[in-house]
Amino acid sequence: MPFVLPEGLAPEVYPLAWLVGRWRGEGVVGYPGVEESAFTQELEITHDGGPYLAYTTTIRLVVAPDDAAALDAGTPGDDAGGAADTPPPAVAGDGPVWSTESGYWRVPPERTDGLTDDQHPVELLLADPSGHVSVFVGAVGNGRIDLVSDLVAHTATGAAVNAGKRLYGMVNGELMWAHDLAAFGHPMQSYASGRLSRVEE
Fold it and tell me: Which of 47, 66, 124, 162 has its CA 20 to 30 A from that of 152?
C-alpha cells in the first residue's frame, strides 16, 4: 500500500510523516542491575496541524504464568506425544508497566552541519515519570532517525540518567528502534530495543 501523507499534517514535519499512527509490538530491555526481560509496547504519534508531532508510549513487561502447565497449549487428551502448539503471544496490557514516555517531535528550520542532501535536522523532547526530562537532537532521512541526547535533567529523586542515544528505522513496513543509555554510573551501552507494527484503524 502506498504511503499517504496524513490529512492536515503541517509541512514542517513532512520528513517525520511516516511515524504518524499507532504502533504495537514487542522488544527486550536489559541493563546492569536490570535483568533482561521481554516486553510489549504501545506507541502513538499524532498531530493536530501544528509544526510538531505528539508522542506517547507505554512499555509493559511480559510475565510468565506461575503455573508452568499454563504454558502447555496442547490438545487435551492427546496421547500421541506430538508437539504442543505455540502459546499465544503476549498482548499489550498483560503485564506491569515498566516505563512510559510522552513528548514532541520537531523539525527545526535551520539545517545543521554534517547533514546530507536527503537528511533533515530533528528534535525529540521527552518527559519520563521516573523524574527526568530529555532533549534529543539528530537527523532524519530515508526512513531512519539517529538521535543523541543534548540535555538530560532530573529531579533530586529522579532516575540518575546522564545521556542516551536512539535509533528509529522503517524496515519492511515495521518500526524498529534501539535505545542506548548511560545511567546509574554506567557507561553508554544497550538498554532496550523493539519491533513494532502499525495498527490499522
Answer: 47
